[in-house]
Amino acid sequence: MTIHKNVIVIGAGGLGCEVIKNIVLLGSRNITIVDPDIIEIHNITRQFLYKVDDVGKYKAIVAAERIKECNSNIKVEAITKRAQELPISVLKQNDIVITAVDNLETRRWINLIMRVIWEQLKNEWKDNGYNRESTLPMFVDGGSQELYGHVRVIKSEQEPCIECSMSLKMPLLAQFQTNPKQQKIVYGNRNEAVIKAIFNKATQYASKHHVDGVTMQMVQNIVQNREININTTNAIIAAIILKVIMTHSKDNFYFYSGEGQTVLDHFTMEKQRDCDLCNCQVATATVDESQTIKQLITQLETQIGCEDINITTEKGTLYMSTPKELRRLYSSRLETTISKMKDMIGSGLYITSTKQNKWYYIDIQYSTNDTRYKQ
Predict the structure, then answer these.
(1) Are 358 and 279 in contact (CB under 8 A)?
(2) ω into 323 cis (within 30 of 0)
């Protein structure tokens, strides 16, 4: 069996390397690799696409080069940006979107953007008079931590999203003590100054005893008690991801545990009725940079059929209509043009209103020749 589809892999770490390798071996000829991180010496033991000579280089670029060494006929693109900085068009041109990241922020962002993509594609197909919902891009999320791993499969907005399974993520608990021990003050400390001081001491010790490979990343992993990434778990989760893609299973949640008795379970998860994202409406708005914020507000209120909207972006609050005190505060922006607020607006807006029990994500497309944020 082969994969004759366009695939994008977000994350080229331990799990990502396994996924990329599997995709190549199964015959995919068009792969995009996204990762903003550079290779560090401690990555080499479990991220097998990289060598010692690659330390200091971007993971995405080296992974792409390693693939080309194996098969020069593969079309592979390396992107050294954060997933949140990707234009929607990059994700939209792929048939399969795989996240193999180590943070919840990226998962949630891709989770949201996939809803935008599905909505855009269905509108485009509707305008052209045909239905291709069965060919919507598939979103597959994989996670690996120590001896545990999971795979989530989402094929459309009709299925449970990442937010629907947030209740399965155990919160970090803190136990307060009147007189904490000294080692607990250091262990788990996220203060930048403390970590830097520990790093300086560690490098002095390393230099004295001729120890190589002491990096800030390594110190952060130890001090902040970051979980270990294990090769075996990565390989198992990557294999499940490829099985899901190849077999089109109806199950949408897979769980692996290698601690004690090995467990690999899978089931069909249901949507959560109170899921914030599933209750979100997504839409696309085309705007001109010469428009004022007031004109933008009128356009959005007309488009979504709602008055007195509040608008926020990834960088903060753009406008508040309620309460009245905040409306007066933000009214000074009403005559400001979009061009002057473009860096704040970015590529998307979050809309809420006290008059509706829902929220909106608006994908912004600019009608000018400036392509910084054009999708």
Answers:
(1) yes
(2) yes
